[in-house]
Amino acid sequence: PGDRVDLMLAEERLEGAERCVVVRSLLEAVHVLATGQATRDALPPGEAAVDLDTSYSTITLDVTPEQAQQLAVGLRMGELIPMLRGADDHAPTGLDALGDGRLACRGVAQS
Hints:
Oligomer: single chain
Structural class: mainly beta
Radius of gyration: 17 Å
Strand content: 35-45%
Largest sheet: 6 strands, antiparallel
Helix content: 10-25%
Number of helices: 1
Order of helices and strands: EEEEHEE
Shape: elongated
């Protein structure tokens, strides 16, 4: 909680006889409000989060309604991957949100 993340969308699709994985930027520098049930507000001032249970399966993000729509569509299209940003990192990722972002393709086995 309190950190910022970039959200990447990993999508697998068929292109002809190849199965391709495409990774692209969906949202950048999104503020994390909570991880599981832990929030930044739950910590006493100056206390580190090391004593908190670090296993969780959800994160709560501070997004606009439009960004929430993007997330909903992204969840239907593929897997969302949060990437932690450095505390002082405010620069754009430089990744084209609309670009191909192709990382890997492999042939599909014919049956």
